[in-house]
Design a protein that fits this description.
The chain has 1 helix and 31 strands. By secondary structure, the protein is mostly beta strands.
Length: 363
């Protein structure tokens, strides 16, 4: 969520103040998404986790068990600390602070008991990427990835193999990075030339993934990753960044992110076919999307936020086009989504000062 966290701050700034890159002129902006009729989401009010400041990621391997991760306050309340929240039957049953980490920004659960989470170590450790093995919500292993300055997302293709996405930084530049995990341990870190950071990825077979992020020139990118190969980096014109991706099959994916249209933050998506992104499409009903899940074929749900009124949103995307956007009561931003069934998704984010999670029922 590296880019979206910065991008969404601009929603409250005066017009003309740009935090990342340059606003896209109206003539050069992504084409506006035509509204379609599709399955709609009905969001229940969120539950608050007072120990958390935000919960940018959630993973639900079954309909009644989830794990959410994010950032909380240290016991003294004077600093930030990574936090993991186990959710059972819609309630937070365990909240664990992880002292060695500053934040957690991605999680994937391979079973109801076993999850892999990624984030960043404390600034006192110079801020490296980190992988945490979770068992029933408790950390059982911590692995520092010193090649990375942060790890932003993770997905698993089996109980033993996972891929994490992030970035490596120097004093003058940054580059996207992908890290292979075996039995929860980092085994191979690969830099991705032509990228500034990778925020999300979706792996459709054990040896193939699609990753999204941003280029050094502030344009959203898509890149196909193989076990020993790396496809070309595709820049998606009309996007500022892409932060979430979901693949419905090995050939078809939907990626979401944000862009400025006439200096206003706006949600954007692209439909990816066989590794090639299509034209970017904007949706004025949302100011940015952070992640997406596709529980029902080409019927997907994207989470993000709106500016007027300011609040968390869930948007149905049908066949690569935005359909309906619904607000989520009690949420300020939504960053995480996981859909354990074809009709139920769990979302997570914040209410402006505390972590929240809730359920979206797809009609």
């Amino acid at each position: 969520m590296t880019f979206l966290r910065t991008f969404r701050l601009a929603g409250g700034l005066a017009a003309g103040v740009i935090l990342l890159g340059t606003a896209v002129p109206a003539a050069a902006a992504a084409q506006s998404t035509a509204r379609t009729t599709a399955a709609q989401g009905v969001a229940s009010p969120v539950r608050v986790v007072k120990q958390a400041l935000d919960l940018p990621a959630v993973s639900c391997p079954t309909a009644n068990v989830c794990e959410a991760v994010g950032t909380g306050l240290t016991p003294s309340g004077e600093g930030q600390i990574a936090i993991a929240v186990r959710i059972v039957d819609g309630r937070a049953t365990r909240v664990v602070r992880i002292a060695a980490l500053h934040d957690l920004s991605g999680v994937f659960c391979v079973t109801p008991d076993s999850c892999e989470a990624v984030g960043t170590t404390n600034p006192s450790d110079n801020g490296h990427g980190a992988v945490v093995n979770l068992w029933r919500g408790r950390p059982t292993g911590l692995h520092v990835v010193r090649e990375a300055s942060s790890l932003n997302g993770v997905t698993c293709t089996s109980r033993v193999t996972c891929e994490a996405a992030g970035q490596t930084s120097t004093t003058s530049s940054s580059q996207g990075l992908v890290v292979g995990l075996l039995f929860g341990k980092p085994v191979l870190a690969r830099a991705v030339p032509g990228t500034a950071a990778l925020d999300g990825l979706s792996c459709h077979v054990p040896t193939g993934c699609e990753a999204v992020g941003a280029s050094p020139t502030d344009v959203g990118i898509v890149v196909r990753l193989g076990l020993r190969s790396m496809g070309p980096v595709h820049q998606v014109s009309g996007t500022l960044f892409l932060s979430g991706i979901a693949c419905t099959n090995p050939a078809t994916c939907v990626a979401v992110g944000g862009v400025y249209v006439q200096q206003h933050p706006t949600a954007v998506l692209t439909l990816i076919q066989s590794g090639e992104p299509g034209p970017a499409q904007t949706d004025p009903d949302a100011a940015g999307w952070s992640n997406v899940a596709c529980p029902r074929g080409m019927t997907c749900q994207a989470v993000g936020f709106s500016v007027q009124p300011h609040g968390g949103t869930v948007t149905t995307i049908q066949d690569g086009r935005a359909a309906e956007t619904v607000p989520v009561d009690g949420a300020f931003h939504l960053d995480g989504i996981s859909c354990p069934t074809a009709t139920t998704c769990v979302v997570s984010g914040d209410n402006g000062g505390e972590g929240v999670f809730g359920t979206v029922t797809i009609r």
